[in-house]
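Predict the holo structure. Ligand: glutamine.
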Amino acid sequence: MSAAPNWTIDGVRAALRARKVSARELAGEFYARIERRNPELNAYLTLSPDRAYAQADRVDAAIARGDELPPLAGVPIAIKDVISTQGIRTTCASKILETYVPPYDATAVERLDRAGAVFLGKTNCDEFAMGGSNENSAYGPVRNPNDPDRVPGGSSGGSAAAVAAGLAVAALGTDTGGSIRQPGSFCGVPGLMPTYGRVSRYGLIAFASSLDHIGPLAKTVKDAATVLRTIAGRDAMDSTSADVPVPDYVAELDKPVRGLKLGVAKEYFGEGLDEEVRQAVEAAIDTLKGLGCEIVPVSLPHTPYAIPTYYLVATAEASSNLARYDGVRYSNRANGVKTLSEMYRRSRDEGFGAEVKRRIMLGTYALSAGYYDAYYLKAQKVRTLLTRDFEEAFRKVDAIVTPTSPTAAFRLGEKSNDPLAMYLADIYTVTADLAGIPGISVPCGETKEKLPIGLQILGKHFDEATILRVGHAFEQTQKSAR
Ligand code: GLN
């Protein structure tokens, strides 16, 4: 296996400016690599060379004119296939949207386009982003570039694998319960979930609207900061997008971390945490201490309720969001049906996979009359308690450090027949989605089997700048340690 080239956003910029490569040649180089590696990894579901080369040609023309280059000029980017892209098929890794071609770009995509990015294609994921291993895709699993017998994590497994294998410089993923941070951790690349409302969800095909976030996976924390800066900010098309100023995340990266208070919660180091992961994360915390951060014990007492709370809220919202796939408005319709209800039933039965059906049933049950108060309403109340845990902790600390996932990447098939075991593995990531706070996973070591381990850094609402800064400072120590 040839080593993936380490193109970063700065590297692309410098090479384009020095005319060492054109944007078109660079796109071609990535497509050649995708052609070689994608048959094994299955990270991309759809390639979009027409759009990519048109974008690249625009950048090359700007370079020829001597124009100032926008921040992502010529940067090859992959987009998770739950995010709408005008003219490029968007399937949500589901049969039900197999032929769907969106007539518009998601806001995040449009902003990348304006910043000069080159869209290589759409990445594989769990169907409708429901999963933590990428095994729930209707188009086959993604393999982890570090070990093809292992999962890349999910649901943004294709985006994480593409970046890790050098099949994109950066990628957009989505995180509803960990789906950017956990695959970032499993594949060994930084993955950032912004604050809820920081990035517009317009054009993101909904899984659970109060939990869904778009964010970057990238080669470096700095690149994640650059992508976030590009896509963040209020958007009139999403009423939940926040009108909060977007800082220059890159400029903030090099501020010292000395004196920052980092919380460590015992609830994130309990039963079920793999010993090698524990050691790596504890070593990372020691490294941060060595950089002058103060380590402060904090308590997040409602953490044990996070998984049931998440799986009630997420499935309830999913059951409602997925009602729109009725065989009428989008994509495939069952053939040979006689009545309207038979068409609904058969179209949905043929179009949705097992995990999606399971969640629609769970969510419909949790929302049904008689059970709503006991399940959905109760879950919303516990969600408030979980949020208060964080608010309380953030009175004392600037950020909280935890493992991203209790284990490194597991084997394909290891958990796929046991949905509950799969759900329980989300223990460290779902809390931040429920509370709406930002989180980043940064590689912090590897197991004896050379599988990456992730350090998660959680921040205050709208304070991505601090977690990026801590992640960046930590990443620098890793580079000099090598
Ligand atoms: N693994 C979680 C789930 O299956 C998270 C998914 C996500 O963040 N999209 O729901």
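The first strand starts at residue 44 and ends at 47. Residues 352 and 454 are 32 Å apart (CA to CA).
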